[in-house]
Automatic annotation (TrEMBL):
Principal cellular location given in the protein's record: membrane
UniProt key word Transport: yes
Domain MHD: 166-414
Record-linked CDD domains: AP-1_Mu1_Cterm
GO CC aspect terms: clathrin adaptor complex; clathrin-coated pit
Species lineage: Eukaryota, Metazoa, Ecdysozoa, Arthropoda, Hexapoda
Gene3D superfamilies named in the record: 3.30.450.60, Mu homology domain, subdomain B (2.60.40.1170)
Species this chain originates from: Brassicogethes aeneus (Rape pollen beetle)
Protein name: MHD domain-containing protein
InterPro entries: Adaptor_comp_med_subunit (IPR050431), AP2_Mu_C_sf (IPR036168), AP_mu_sigma_su (IPR022775), Clathrin_mu (IPR001392), Clathrin_mu_CS (IPR018240), Longin-like_dom_sf (IPR011012), MHD (IPR028565)
Length: 416
């Protein structure tokens, strides 16, 4: 990949800042403005515009255009990846990327342009590395720049020389369940989104080796029943493809090691039966039966069931076999709170309201019941961390902690 120059333009095509890397694209930006106007007049939105003189790859952000001029054959996917990376770097420096922030940070942007590209080839694009020697407070680089060691290290995501008194690794497997069920208990959709989240406080430059349960075997982007598996860029994919073990040198602090999706044919975590009975425009009665479908040794914490009611009810009368129920008029709903609920149990809630003579329950029937919960030490996918090994040169003793949590995503049950 190579590019000739970079321009940042306002929404009228005025040049705010530019950097010419090869000296072969003078005044070619005028062709881009002309091509862009023609494209907009024809209601076409092309990410790449071309003329006989050059090609122009660009992205738009808050009425600003970030444009790369290309005069040689280049990998356009890499060009756009670089543009996105550069845009994200500026956002991290300035928070809001707009014309005023470009003008206020003119010097810093020039410094960034000098560092991220050399003679048309991307160099350093990691914002954490750039921020080590281009600070937002100082608008000019010091004359003698000390390049951080991490710039010349192949492990760009982790600085050298880290030291901790207490070396620890925390690993969380968190799965969020999205469910939509009909009133008869049949599933309309069920999806599980999972992440393997890590917090690493380790000295030096350790290598970690992580193994999952033998029941799961990765094949391309599928890991057993898991789909859309994505790894952090620190994972050595070549070694993983050979022995199905994750090798990586971790970033320092919090990061997401892995994410995945699951579309299983599963029994819902919670089943809910609801019965609503109206009595001749005088009162309405609700009977809610909640059943936990997970294994008996697991316990769901902070279970919340929100049941919609008509917007013209009063004189509530509520009773439940466990927890506490209350009427929330600001939400037009009953809120049933259960501090903890083990698997395989069943509880009920009964509610009665007085109605006015002109109430309509149509709106209430369209709004589904929502359930919130958190179940520690439990996963729907059966994903299990078999071992975590920490390989360090100095043989420092380290502690590892692993937790599993299943929680609600968008968990809804229709009343009718």
């Amino acid at each position: 990949m190579s590019l000739s120059s970079i321009y940042i333009l306002d929404n009228k095509g005025k040049i705010l800042i530019s950097r010419d890397y090869r000296g072969d694209s003078k005044d070619y930006i005028e062709y881009f403005v002309k091509l862009l106007n023609e494209s907009e007049d024809q209601n076409l939105h092309r990410p790449v515009l071309s003329s006989t003189e050059a090609s122009f790859a660009y992205i738009k952000k808050n009425d600003l255009f970030i444009v790369c001029i290309i005069r040689k054959n280049a990998n356009i996917a890499l060009i756009f990846a670089f543009l996105r990376k550069f845009l994200n770097t500026m956002v991290e420096y300035f928070k809001e990327l707009e014309e005023e922030s470009i003008q206020d940070n003119f010097v810093i942007i020039h410094e960034l342009l000098d560092e991220v590209v050399d003679y048309g080839y991307p160099q350093i694009t990691d914002s954490k590395i750039l921020q080590e020697y281009i600070t937002q407070k100082g608008y000019k680089l010091k004359k003698k720049i000390t390049i951080p060691p991490v710039v010349t290290n192949c492990v760009s995501w982790r600085p050298e020389g880290l030291k901790y008194k207490r070396n620890e690794v925390f690993l969380d497997v968190i799965e969020s369940i999205n469910v939509l069920m009909n009133a008869n208990g049949s599933l309309v959709k069920a999806e599980v989104n999972g992440v393997v989240q890590m917090k690493v406080h380790l000295s030096g430059m350790p290598q970690l080796r992580l193994g999952f349960s033998d029941k799961l075997i990765l094949d391309n982007s599928h890991y057993g029943s898991l789909e859309d598996v994505k790894f952090h860029h620190c994972v050595q994919l070549s070694r993983f493809n050979n022995d199905k073990t994750i090798y990586f040198i971790p970033p320092d602090g919090d990061f997401e090691l892995m994410s995945y999706r699951l579309n299983p044919e599963i029994s819902p975590i919670f089943l809910l039966n609801s019965h609503v009975e109206h009595h001749a425009h005088s009162r309405v009665e609700y009977t809610i039966l909640l059943k936990s479908q997970f294994k008996k040794c697991a316990i769901a914490h902070n279970v919340e069931v929100q049941i919609p009611v008509s917007n013209d009810v009063d004189s509530p009368s509520l009773s439940c076999s466990i927890g506490a129920a209350s009427y929330r008029p600001e939400n037009n709903a009953i809120l049933w709170l259960i501090k903890s609920m083990a698997g395989g149990l069943e509880y009920y809630l009964k509610a009665a309201f007085r109605l006015s003579s002109f109430v309509s329950d149509e709106e209430e029937r369209k709004i589904p019941i929502q359930i919130k919960f958190s179940i520690p030490y439990f996963t729907v996918s059966k994903l299990h961390i078999r071992y975590i090994k920490i390989i360090e040169k100095n043989d420092t003793k380290s502690l590892t902690w692993v937790r599993y949590t299943t929680q609600n995503g968008d968990y809804q049950i229709r009343i009718v």
